[in-house]
Design goal:
Elements lengths: L4 E4 L3 H12 L4 E4 L3 H11 L5 E3 L3 H6 L6 E4 L5 H10 L8 E4 L5 H12 L4 E8 L1 H7 L2 E4 L3 H14 L2 E2 L2 E2 L9 H29 L5 H12 L6 H11 L9 H4 L9 H12 L4 H13 L2 H10 L15 H31 L5 H7 L10 H11 L10 H24 L4 H14 L5 H12 L27
Parallel strand pairs: 1-2, 1-4, 2-3, 4-5, 5-6
Antiparallel strand pairs: 6-7, 8-9
Helix pairs in contact: 1-6, 8-12, 8-13, 8-15, 9-10, 12-13, 13-19, 15-18, 15-19, 16-17
Bound molecules: NADPH dihydro-nicotinamide-adenine-dinucleotide phosphate.
NADPH dihydro-nicotinamide-adenine-dinucleotide phosphate binds next to helix 1, helix 4 and strand 6.
Catalytic activity: 6-phospho-D-gluconate + NADP(+) = D-ribulose 5-phosphate + CO2 + NADPH
Pathway: Carbohydrate degradation; pentose phosphate pathway; D-ribulose 5-phosphate from D-glucose 6-phosphate (oxidative stage): step 3/3
Subunit structure: Homodimer.
């Protein structure tokens, strides 16, 4: 008997993926650098399906049917390269090495190119949903050669999350496309979390609501258009009471948000592509500010002043307004993330269908939400949509939200409560809709000090003005 698929790297993620394959009736070959984990899996979960454990890489490879499908689920980075180096010589033409870890898409592109030269298919697969997702159905974003999807896709679709029977798994595009889309998914997740955190902060500080009350507000929102996994778990977190102190859990946690790096990667990639993902960037920076202990301590010691006591109160229904601001800012963050996916798709020739990305994020992953249905519909109508904001559903939503959104941004500024996500999303929105941007002045400045030239609104061509010679150093912008 041969296995349809093999998994090497049997820590929590690999183990759960292997069990998921087995529970769907596939025979699964097992391998791990140290045999202990392999043994443990078979002892604890062997009854869930058919597993073929191997101690050596060679036996593992021999236990697989052709073309061999080897899922690598090890620590991202050098460990992945070490595993590839170990397995590539044991595989034959047409076999597949499938990296399901959180690799950087540039590493995936490099690895695919190297293995292609050896006749092997390297498939970078984004897997979202953490350990629970891996076991019960993740959202899966496979890249790599399209031919490989024919042999691999059905297995991945089997174990993926389903929405009305439709798997949350589709071939994203060739080479690093899958890992790129997974990275942007994580970037959007950062933005979503930051916006939710700002909503909580305003409800608490401006509205004076307790965490338990805010939990109920979020629960209510979860029934409406904001309905999503992140809103749902936020309500749970806010409801939680610390057993040892009796205080709200949220008050006993140190207010420094950590990060593993995928948000940062998203922003770095966006900078290279020239895509303004300000919502994601603000959320990464907000985490950095929260972790900036020396600066925050110095600011507290210096007593950086807040607004005067006469700062304005919120005019309007705060809870309703914050819901509108949250929804509108969320739309902006997703619009930017999808724009980044489209830009990368163009840059690398990936031919990614954005509506399909919204489709496979509807379940199994952290940003799963009702909202994604509307994104899918928007791109189904027009895959080349320049920005989600001009799709009728989102245009109506933002038009309906904008007065409340502005009131919330004003209140935050007047009361000295940081809301970088809400405010920068609004600034992005206003920049898009501005008929004239002050970029014209920047062009003038650039031409002044660097003779960088400019274009005119009234005739074609490049122009340079002979500015007064004084005070014009010859430096580049
Ligand atoms: P870890 O990232 O903790 O990695 C541990 C595994 O890697 C073990 O099987 C270990 O083998 C193996 N390993 C480490 N170094 C080497 C090496 N040099 N050669 C061979 N094997 C090595 O495991 P996780 O299960 O947490 O995560 C696996 C992957 O999934 C990672 O890429 C991670 O980023 C990603 N991940 C994704 C999540 C998601 O939601 N999508 C959530 C969590 C992780 P040994 O037992 O011998 O030490």
């Amino acid at each position: 008997q041969k296995a349809q698929i093999g998994v090497t790297g049997l820590a929590v993620m690999g183990r759960n993926l292997a069990r998921n394959f087995a529970r769907h009736g596939h025979t699964v070959a097992l391998h791990n650098r140290s045999y202990g984990r392999t043994k443990e899996l078979v002892e604890e979960f062997g009854h869930e399906g058919t597993f073929l454990p191997s101690e050596s890489a060679a036996d593992f490879v021999a236990s697989l049917e052709r073309p061999r499908r080897v899922v690598i689920m090890v620590k991202a980075g050098p460990a992945t390269d070490a595993v590839i180096d170990e397995f590539a010589p044991l595989l034959e033409e047409g076999d597949m090495l499938i990296d399901a870890g959180n690799a950087h898409y540039a590493d995936t592109r490099r690895r695919e190119a190297a293995l292609k030269a050896k006749g092997l298919h390297f498939v970078g697969v984004g897997v979202s949903g953490g350990e629970e997702g891996a076991l019960h159905g993740p959202s899966i974003m496979p890249g790599g050669p399209k031919e490989s999807y024919e042999a691999l896709g059905p297995l991945l679709e089997d174990i993926a999350a389903k929405v009305d029977g439709v798997p949350c798994c589709v071939h994203v595009g060739p080479d690093g496309a899958g890992h790129f889309v997974k990275m942007v998914h994580n970037g959007i997740e950062y933005a979503d979390m930051q916006l939710i955190a700002e909503a909580y902060d305003l409800l608490r500080q401006v509205g004076g609501h307790s965490p338990a009350e805010i939990a109920d507000i979020f629960k209510g929102w979860n029934e409406g258009r904001l309905g999503s996994y992140l809103i749902e778990i936020t309500a749970e977190v806010l409801k939680q009471v610390d057993a040892s102190t009796g205080k709200p859990f949220v008050d006993i946690v140190v207010d420094r948000a950590e990060q593993k790096g995928t948000g940062r990667w998203t922003v770095q990639a966006a900078l290279d592509l020239g895509v303004p993902v300000s919502g994601i960037a603000e959320s990464v920076f907000a985490r950095a500010i929260s972790g900036g202990v020396p600066e925050r301590t110095a600011a507290a010691e210096a007593g950086l002043p807040g607004p005067s006591a006469t700062a304005g109160q919120h005019t309007g229904d705060l809870v309703a307004d914050v819901e509108q601001a949250l929804f509108a800012s969320k739309i902006v963050a997703y619009a930017q993330g999808f724009q980044q996916i489209q830009a990368a798709s163009k840059e690398y020739d990936w031919d990614i269908n954005p509506g399909e990305m919204a489709k496979i994020w509807r379940d199994g992953c952290i940003i799963r939400a009702k909202f994604l249905d509307f994104i899918k519909q928007a791109y189904d109508k027009n895959a080349a949509l320049p920005t989600l904001l001009v799709d009728q559903y989102f245009l109506d939503a933002v038009s309906g939200a904008q007065d409340a959104w502005r009131r919330v941004a004003v209140t935050a500024a007047q009361q000295g409560i940081p809301a970088p996500g809400f405010s920068s999303a609004l600034a992005y929105y206003d920049s898009l809709r501005a008929s004239r941007l002050p970029a014209a002045l920047i062009q003038g400045q650039r031409d002044f000090f660097g003779a960088h030239t400019y274009q005119r609104v009234d005739k074609p061509g490049s122009f340079h003005t002979l500015w007064a010679a004084e005070g014009r150093p010859e430096v580049d912008a």
